[in-house]
């Protein structure tokens, strides 16, 4: 599993998708830059989301609000008081950990033990093995899973009631620093994840600000502006794509958990009482959107929250099978009127909707969908990465990206760099570049050029050869099947269009 992620990280760097940020200066932890191919893939993912949310829903509009916001907004939203993670330090190694993650990783060891038992039995029984039956009856498996659950339950309780109890739990379980083994822990304390900064130039007038930890609040504080100027009737939604910043304690797993990342969020405003049916509707709509990317149904699952955040009356995650297991990709929350009511209270201004059908005023309820763009990028990249052994004994690395989001749609090659072939190929390039992101390449042998395009996920390659000059046909090669077909130059657009358009 670790190896699978390492390969994706290395590939992302080698082919210009993702670079460690400030690499020249040895990098900044959990911050990344997107390279020449990464930015194209990321832009395509944004467009794919924007199209589905804003363009195809006539009751959803977009905005782009500022990253800097009035500091009282984060008081109202609860982030100043409650956007914390439990932090613990190891006194010997001076390393810092998220206390809950430390315990969760420990609990996960019991799950691994259970999995080992299952694997052993699978080997022993071969074809006759009934895994479901085994998992639900085998005493060792049951015991390991019981122990895991007990630890997680106790953790949840201590986090809710008393953080000093979390320290006691860590000590009682005998958990040590994963690297050094040292069990010399400090007290657990709350660590606020927001980054602070200052607005203004003189020391006495400067105001403390935060970099926004979510884009959602930019939508809430613009609810009235959009509703009034857009003359919107409930239910309607506001969508936004933008950067968010969190000073994460555990920064690992590549672009899965970053300190600067991008969110694609939509807040859907509805009448009180109707929120749970809209919540169900958006759960299904969002899952179907993910499935349409074609990464495989088996790689998604819902994880309904039993413990709800202070603002929610229903919440679920869409989890994706990353190289390190099923993890949250998107959150869908029924946020009640928590945010708008809080902004009414803190700003002193009315945020009410007059419902002409019910003939009364109320604060709208909200259903939110929130997906991390970088996590989506990692989902697509890790799922598309394949190492294939070919029939002729060689191998290739291919990114089987959904064609609609591939950075380059088409690469155009002259077979040789003479006899007028480059000029002909350039002509095709110039003709198609207005419609697609196309690439022209004439260096190296044709086989090598194909491999390079496979590695960045280009769905089609076109080769111009000497016959092209006679009959205006070219070969078009398919990334996935590697088959080549002879087609007329005039038919290229018709052939490619239905496959690469969103
Ligand atoms: P997690 O539990 O994994 O920390 P979260 O529940 O705090 O995530 P939300 O606040 O619901 O996340 O944010 C919505 C989405 O934003 C998440 O589903 C995820 O895709 C993305 N996201 C959140 N934190 C990060 C991060 N540090 N790096 C990248 N993406 C993130």
Automatic annotation (TrEMBL):
Domain of life assignment: Bacteria
GO function term, MF aspect, one: glycine-tRNA ligase activity
Primary localization: cytoplasm
Ligase listed as a keyword: yes
Reaction(s) catalysed (UniProt annotation): tRNA(Gly) + glycine + ATP = glycyl-tRNA(Gly) + AMP + diphosphate
Residue ranges of domain Aminoacyl-transfer RNA synthetases class-II family profile in the record: 194-403
Family the entry assigns: Belongs to the class-II aminoacyl-tRNA synthetase family.
Entries under NCBIfam families matching the protein: glyS_dimeric (TIGR00389), PRK04173.1 (NF003211)
Subunit: Homodimer.
Protein name according to UniProt: Glycine--tRNA ligase
Organism: Apibacter muscae
Gene (name only): glyQS
């Amino acid at each position: 599993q670790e190896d699978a992620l390492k390969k994706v990280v290395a590939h992302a760097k080698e082919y210009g998708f993702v670079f460690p940020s400030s690499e020249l200066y040895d990098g900044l932890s959990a911050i990344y830059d997107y390279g020449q191919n990464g930015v194209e893939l990321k832009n395509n993912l944004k467009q794919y989301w924007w199209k589905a949310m804003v363009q195809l829903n006539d009751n959803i509009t977009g905005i782009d609000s500022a990253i800097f916001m009035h500091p009282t907004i984060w008081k109202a939203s609860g982030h100043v008081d409650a956007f914390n993670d439990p932090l613990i330090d190891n006194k010997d190694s001076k390393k810092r950990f998220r206390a809950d993650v430390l315990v969760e990783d420990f609990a996960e060891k019991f799950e691994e033990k259970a999995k080992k038992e299952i694997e052993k039995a699978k080997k022993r029984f071969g074809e006759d093995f009934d895994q479901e039956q085994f998992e639900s009856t085998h005493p060792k498996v049951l015991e390991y899973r019981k122990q895991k659950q007990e630890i997680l339950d106790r953790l949840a309780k201590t986090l809710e009631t008393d953080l000093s109890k979390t320290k006691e739990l860590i000590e009682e379980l005998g958990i040590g620093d994963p690297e050094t083994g040292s069990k010399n822990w400090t007290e657990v304390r709350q660590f606020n994840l927001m980054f602070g900064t200052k607005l203004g130039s003189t020391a006495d007038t400067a105001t403390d600000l935060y970099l926004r930890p979510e884009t959602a609040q930019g939508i809430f504080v613009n609810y009235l502006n959009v509703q009034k100027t857009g003359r919107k009737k409930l239910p309607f939604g506001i969508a936004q794509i933008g950067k968010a910043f969190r000073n994460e304690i555990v920064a690992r797993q590549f672009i899965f958990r970053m300190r600067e990342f991008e969110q694609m969020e939509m807040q859907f405003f509805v009448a009180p009482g109707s929120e749970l049916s809209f919540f169900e509707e958006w759960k299904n709509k969002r899952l179907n959107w993910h499935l349409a990317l074609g990464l495989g149904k088996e790689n998604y699952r819902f994880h309904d929250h039993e413990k709800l955040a202070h603002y929610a009356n229903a919440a679920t995650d869409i989890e994706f099978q990353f190289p390190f297991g099923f993890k949250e990709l998107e959150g869908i929350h029924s946020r009640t009127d928590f945010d708008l009511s809080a902004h009414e209270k803190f700003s002193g201004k009315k945020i009410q909707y007059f419902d002409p059908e019910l003939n009364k005023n109320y604060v709208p309820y909200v259903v939110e969908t929130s997906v991390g763009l970088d996590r989506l990028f990692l989902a697509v990249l890790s799922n598309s990465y394949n190492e294939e052994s070919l029939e002729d004994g060689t191998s290739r690395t291919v990114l089987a990206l959904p064609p609609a989001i591939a950075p380059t749609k088409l690469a155009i090659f002259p077979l040789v760099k003479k006899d007028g072939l480059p000029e002909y190929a350039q002509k095709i390039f110039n003709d198609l570049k207005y419609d697609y992101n196309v690439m022209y390449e004439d260096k190296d042998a044709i086989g090598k050029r194909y491999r390079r395009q496979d590695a960045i996920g280009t769905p089609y390659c076109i080769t111009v050869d000497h016959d092209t000059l006679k009959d205006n046909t070219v070969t078009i090669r398919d990334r996935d099947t590697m088959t080549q077909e002879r087609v007329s130059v005039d038919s290229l657009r018709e052939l490619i269009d239905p496959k690469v358009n969103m």
